[in-house]
Amino acid sequence: MRNRLNILYQFNEKYVPYAGVSIYSVLCHNKHTPQICIYIMGENLSKDAVIMLKHLVTSYHREVVFINTKSLVEKMRELDLPTYRGSYAANMRLFLDEVLDESVQRILYLDSDTIVVAPLDGLFGLCMQDRAIGMVLDSLGYSHKKQIGLTDADDYFNSGVILFDLSKWKKENYSEKIVRHIVKRRNNYPAPDQDLLNIVCRNDIFRLDLKYNYQPIHAAFSDKLFWRIMHPAVYYDVTQIEESRKDIVIYHCFRFLGEFPWHKENLHP
């Protein structure tokens, strides 16, 4: 059992309801953990949203820390960093080492559209083999790997769940490397934060099991059909997918066929 779990979220006002559900799922399935701290990097959160989120976390006798992101947003504006759908929120975690206390050595970032359905002890206890971050391979990202400069043989990871080893992240100075890459290249990446992590940290990412970021396509299609449609050069094999399905820890409910699970009358798997 881990003594402390550090969990990070980043979102704007629009995603408060969904982030709240995700936070609730963390709290519900990790009641045995002595300490949990929820770190929130919010963008333009209302006072009502902050009050509701505080009440949710403290009702489980846990700690919540709202990180002041104004300086980060200003820095991104000055550097002319790209936004994602008009918001800087998606890029904030790329600079988390600048705003977190030195005592935080390992932290798990979760997208607002994730649902935790099992304890997180196993994930936090993993040996990452001296890698800076741990991520799950992306189930849909193969069509644009070449577009961002990767080969078919390169891993391509999904950024919805990221386990950070902050000591290694800081040692390698990845926040600064990401900034230098953006300023030098000025590429218009399809998925800015995700693509940047895959490019800049390419040789320093630990491959997590699929069960830690179980993606919609595996609920929508059989494994045989998935392989026939996607035919990925690098991915989990059928046995690994089947084993993950038996032991899912985190569902990642990202947009699928244009819909989120919270859309009315949606067909999300």
- The residue ranges in which pLDDT falls below 50 over 5 or more consecutive positions are none
Widest sheet: strand ordering? 3-2-1-4-7-6-8
Radius of gyration: 18 Å
* Mean model confidence by pLDDT: 91
Helix vs. strand class = alpha/beta
What is the number of strand segments?
A: 9
> What best-fitting shape do the alpha-carbon axes yield?
globular
* Helix and strand run: EHEHEHEEHEEHHHEHHHE
First-last Cα distance: 32 Å
| Helical residues, percent | 25-40%
Number of helices: 10
Biggest pleated sheet: 7 strands, mixed
Which strand-content bin applies to the residues?
Answer: 15-25%
Task: Furnish the topology, listing elements before pairings.
Layout: E1 4-12, H1 16-28, E2 35-43, H2 47-58, E3 63-67, H3 70-78, E4 106-110, E5 114-116, H4 121-124, E6 133-137, E7 157-165, H5 166-171, H6 174-185, H7 192-200, E8 205-207, H8 217-220, H9 223-230, H10 238-246, E9 250-252
Parallel strand pairs: 1-2, 1-4, 2-3, 6-8
Antiparallel strand pairs: 4-7, 5-9, 6-7
Helix pairs in contact: 1-2
Structure described in brief:
With 269 residues, the protein is an alpha/beta fold. It is 32% helix and 19% strand.
What can you see in these coordinates?
The chain is an alpha/beta fold and 269 residues long. The longest helix is centred in the N-terminal third of the chain and has 13 residues, at 16-28. The strands form 2 sheets. A 7-stranded mixed β-sheet has the order 3-2-1-4-7-6-8, with helices on both faces. Helices cover 32% and strands 19% of the residues. β2, α2 (47-58) and β3 (63-67) form a beta-alpha-beta unit. α1 packs parallel to α2 (47-58). The chain contains 10 helices and 9 strands.
